[in-house]
Amino acid sequence: xxxxxxxxxxxxxxxxxxxxxxxxxxxxxxxxxxxxxxxxxxxxxxxxxxxxxxxxxxxxxxxxxxxxxxxxxxxxxxxxxxxxxxxxxxxxxxxxxxxxxxxxxxxxxxxxxxxxxxxxxxxxxxxxxxxxxxxxxxxxxxxxxxxxxxxxxxxxxxxxxxxxxxxxxxxxxxxxxxxxxxxxxxxxxxxxxxxxxxxxxxxxxxxxxxxxxxxxxxxxxxxxxxxxxxxxxxxxxxxxxxxxxxxxxxxxxxxxxxxxxxxxxxxxxxxxxxxxxxxxxxxxxxxxxxxxxxxxxxxxxxxxxxxxxxxxxxxxxxxxx
Amino acid sequence: xxxxxxxxxxxxxxxxxxxxxxxxxxxxxxxxxxxxxxxxxxxxxxxxxxxxxxxxxxxxxxxxxxxxxxxxxxxxxxxxxxxxxxxxxxxxxxxxxxxxxxxxxxxxxxxxxxxxxxxxxxxxxxxxxxxxxxxxxxxxxxxxxxxxxxxxxxxxxxxxxxxxxxxxxxxxxxxxxxxxxxxxxxxxxxxxxxxxxxxxxxxxxxxxxxxxxxxxxxxxxxxxxxxxxxxxxxxxxxxxxxxxxxxxxxxxxxxxxxxxxxx
Lengths: 321, 263
Ligand SMILES: Cc1cc2nc3c(=O)[nH]c(=O)nc-3n(C[C@H](O)[C@H](O)[C@H](O)COP(=O)(O)OP(=O)(O)OC[C@H]3O[C@@H](n4cnc5c(N)ncnc54)[C@H](O)[C@@H]3O)c2cc1C
Ligand SMILES: Nc1ncnc2c1ncn2[C@@H]1O[C@H](COP(=O)(O)O)[C@@H](O)[C@H]1O
Hints:
Chain A is an alpha/beta fold. Chain A is 26% helix and 29% strand.
């Protein structure tokens, strides 16, 4: 394929996002031997562009005050002006990718290939990718017709971060695509509130998910947590239901934790949840569904019904002290 | 405000063990529990709350086969005034762009100030809302977890970004938003609510009614096609403990003690 390959580099506080390093290796896996061009948009982004030049042979820099905050509604028309027809563009499957990607593919007339976890090569104009469906319970081989290009979003954690090596070239394109306007205006970012406890500092976390079924049953988890002398965290549905504080949520839209021991009780193991679990803990999963994806990443798995298992476990923990 | 909410009928992944059918052509569909895509309930609830506050009307629409009617009815039982079902043999096998094309065509048949979708559905694509916006040339925002109506010309919205921070934006109407869970608490729908809307007529929109041609939707025009489903060759995977609950608990306690999990 002769299409030009681009990677959109997200950054924050003057540093390239982790996703940039993963996208660099995703690009190499997708089309071995073809060099990707990085796109860096923002205001005062020399440092990021230089950093990106350690990952990509070529970096296009768009430095404009209007781009101080990454507003996808502004960046989409910018990309439409500068990205040649038929290009393949990689971006992270994150909340910025959700904003930018689908509409960009429509406007480019390109295929949209979301949330890719693996690449199986290119067969003519068919880009062969691996995706997951049904919250990760099954995988799927998917073929995308990239004859008119593609916008591909890549799941975080699916590719190892690329090693850096200096030598890339930064091309300043700040004068191109100036004067853009959007019907959406960025106002501010409100940081997440600190919760009642700081789960990011805990060594042992007992984490409860939707499998607990009912608010009343949280008490069972609380008893176990107390017996272990641990702290309680949770997955997102527990916070959505307002059973626990947002400050206890582990995951990409919650807290990133680094415990030594992590008990996942009735948590299926979505990538958004696991995205907040770092440092390779001793991970115990208790779930009644043997197909739950959490069992693929757990150290130890137990197939059991929480409502029956937890009281037994709590009693044994109390005795063991 | 006239609001269109897109809703999808999906196998409930919290309720089902999803497994691959023998030839990989599909998942095993017998005995699956279907429901409304989790995110879509939040979108419908938000639309209803906006209309309760500011007046207007909520319309829900689903693209699917005749089975999708049941979820349209369920969302009407929540309080959506109008339901629509987009169904046609030519729609089958559509990719995300195909679905968005059908929904955008349906949106054009009305005059909606606001179009809502869920942030994502069962195949995790998070694509349909953004595509509808692009097809209709409307502004878009994804993973919205707060909507404040202002002057009728724009909305102040919050987007839930990484780390749980909230990104505040103003967005002009009409617009398309994809809704994140937790934005509200979707109301409970009882059997009586369902009964009340059991005989309400739900208009069916086919390809002709929507003016979409086979070249734009359906399997043949899909650029993105699933070849098969498979179960990934698991890595090491977990060491699975076995035994009665009693035995399992003993084994786990021993492991936890060894790893410093019991203080
Ligand atoms: C933009 C975005 C950001 C997100 N951020 C986060 C995040 O930060 N954190 C997060 O957690 N999620 C996040 N999510 C949601 C995520 O996609 C999943 O929906 C969520 O993690 C599922 O939580 P869960 O595992 O508790 O529930 P489910 O996926 O519903 O799993 C429940 C599990 O419990 C098991 N179970 C049921 N009953 C029992 C029983 N009696 N005994 C034992 N097991 C039982 C089931 O088999 C199932 O595996 C995000 C989603 C989006 C779109
Ligand atoms: N068949 C469908 N009918 C109606 N709405 C849909 C359909 N498929 C997807 N959507 C909408 O698009 C959202 C995101 O789905 P997806 O882009 O498939 O992840 C869903 O939450 C729905 O609001």
